[in-house]
Amino acid sequence: TSIINIPDAQTNFHLYALEWYPDSMCIFVDSIKYLTFKKESDDWKVWPFNKNFHFILNLAVGGSWGGAQGVDDSIFPQRMLIDYVRVYKKE
User: For residue 89, is pLDDT > 80?
Assistant: First the structure.
């Protein structure tokens, strides 16, 4: 597990990118590569990325209770601003 800390992620726009290759995936934030995940086998438990996928852009809420006591209403209002999502296929 890797963590990328973006200190101003809640106040500024950033460019997040995933380059997906047959044998690896590279993760970027603002054109800086932070992570490369290499395919180690065709076993779906190790590399489940041989299937079709779709995007889910999610603003999860729940406060600091972890859902045990319901949703902490003091966290509202919340928002998630997305300028664009683009998908390219390398030919």
Answer: no
